[in-house]
Amino acid sequence: MAKNLEITILLDFYGEMLTSKQREFLDFYYNEDLSLAEIAANVGITRQGVRDAIKRAECLLYDMEQRLGLVARFKDVQNGLDEIMDCATKISAENRKNGLSREISDLTVKIKSIALSLSE
Amino acid sequence: MAKNLEITILLDFYGEMLTSKQREFLDFYYNEDLSLAEIAANVGITRQGVRDAIKRAECLLYDMEQRLGLVARFKDVQNGLDEIMDCATKISAENRKNGLSREISDLTVKIKSIALSLSE
Fold first, then answer.
1. Stretch B22-29: mean pLDDT
2. Quick check: A114 and B80 CB within 8 A?
3. What was the pLDDT predicted at B97?
């Protein structure tokens, strides 16, 4: 069972739709990086039981993304914000080259700071 | 039972987690603007049955937003994109005032077009 990094972002988006038990198992496995055996020892069930519970919870997360597509929607936004930051950097450089308008400089800083604050 | 405009955006985000029946009722009621009596006549159940089904589906949508908060998250992004477009417009005006760099002009157009394409 390979650990899937995508799961952590799905957990961030949709985790609250899982039971607290399911969230706990995924959190142990993905965020705390415990092994199945360690989780089994912690919670007092079999390794196979932990494995099944994690698989089931992962399926629920994948199913939600397949239905709702909100992680994909956010990724598009993130890519767009990256492009916007890149444009703002270029404006700033071009502005510095051409006689330096203080106002343009301030506005590019503001664009970058907004884009950065939305990129979490 | 007042029609709630917020429901249409919740339906857009989370509708795929409802049953097709629930989606159909909410779609009739909110998007097609049919009355409870009209929906009841269409689907062959009582007006009270339609009303209960719609209430239940609305509760599910509100519950999902309370858990996941993804509509709120997207609204923050939309507000930030509006601010970015506003800054780009100001840069463009300032740039025009100060000797007109073609490159800055093109870059502000690009920022606005990216921000607009993400604002759906």
1. 93
2. yes
3. 83
- Rg, chain B, Cα only: 22
Q: How far is CA B40 from CA A9, A109, A117, B29, B53, in A?
A: 42, 56, 47, 11, 11
Query: In angstroms, rounded to a whole number, what is the distance separating the alpha carbons of residues A68 and B67?
Result: 15
Residues from chain B that touch A109, judged by Cβ atoms under 8 A, are none
Q: What is the ipTM of this complex?
A: 0.76
Which tokens belong to B60?
């599910």
Between these two residues, A99 and A79, which has the higher pLDDT value?
A79
The separation between the first and the last C-alpha atoms of chain A, rounded to the nearest angstrom, is: 29
Whether B87 sits inside 8 A of A111 (CB atoms) is: yes
Joined together, the tokens standing for residue B84 give 């970015």
Work out the burial of residue B45: count CB atoms within 10 Å of its CB; fewer than 13 is exposed, 13-18 middle, 19 or more buried.
Answer: middle
Query: Do B71 and A73 form a contact (C-beta atoms < 8 A)?
Result: no
Please state the pTM of the whole predicted model.
0.79
Cα dihedral A11, A13, A19, A23 in deg (nearest 10): 20
User: pLDDT higher for A34 or A99?
Assistant: A34
Q: What is the mean pLDDT of residues A4-19?
A: 90
Residue in B91, B98, B114 closest to A84 by CB: B114
Residues on chain B touching A117 (C-beta within 8 angstroms): 80
Average pLDDT (A92-98) is 84
